[in-house]
Specification:
Blueprint: H1 3-10, H2 24-44, H3 48-73
């Protein structure tokens, strides 16, 4: 299948993101707020177990929340 055939075949089904543009601010704010809470809990009790239970989810929530807030503000990455 050539690239032109693939291009024509996919033109009938446009891309629809999993999280719509209207909901990006809410999702981004929720993720950043949960990252703030998890970071505070991680700072209160530092142990090896809290790295897995608070540290990793906090860093993932901050990373994805920052990208969603950037996209919600209109700056596309």
């Amino acid at each position: 299948m050539s690239l032109n055939e693939i291009w024509e075949a996919t033109s009938a089904s446009p891309y629809a993101p999993l999280i719509s543009k209207d909901n990006q601010f809410f999702v981004g704010f929720s993720l950043l707020f949960s990252a703030f809470i998890l970071t505070g809990l991680f700072g209160l009790n530092r142990s090896f177990l809290s790295i897995a239970s608070f540290g990793v989810p906090a860093s993932l929530a901050f990373g994805f929340g920052a990208v969603f807030m950037i996209c919600a503000a209109g700056v596309y990455v």
